[in-house]
Amino acid sequence: MPAPLNVNREAVKTLAVVHGVREAARLSGLPQATVQAWSARFGWLKSGKPENSSQPICNQSPSNALTDSLARLGEETKHNLARAGAKASKHLARLKGAQVTRASGDFKNIVGGSAQLHGWDTRFQGTQFSLNVLNVGSFGVEINES
Fold first, then answer.
1. Do residues 44 and 35 touch, judged by C-beta distance below 8 A?
2. How far apart (Å, rounded) are the C-alpha atoms in residues 123 and 125?
3. Residue 16: is it exposed, middle or buried by C-beta count within 10 angstroms (0-12/13-18/19+)?
4. Which of 38, 65, 89, 144 can pair with 60 through a Cys bridge, CB separation 3.0 to 4.6 Å?
5. What is the pTM of this model?
6. Hey, which bits of 12-122 come out as E strands?
7. d(Cα 39, Cα 21) in Å, to the nearest integer?
């Protein structure tokens, strides 16, 4: 049996939270498989808040405090971006047709950002369809029905 590793797992966990498992393994000089196994076994990258996030930040481990702080920042950022997107869409809705055409680049950026933020791109996967119509008459092709 190999000798146990003398590693500060909390430090590796913090690196995994900040940089991801692969980069944490590289930075700590550990095999990637080892860090991945620890992450899976101990639930380092579980979505949502850490189990002890109701504690004051000074009573949490550094990695849990960091995870909690990043989760709060992420939610605040989403909220602020959603509000900005709503304001921008209201502004575009008040514009006349020609003005919207001139602002089409801004419109595309606002819609794209909102779609990514709200998950509009993935919510309707599988329900989209494409309809291709060939207008034979527009090519000067005549069809004899005899």
1. no
2. 6
3. buried
4. 65
5. 0.42
6. none
7. 7
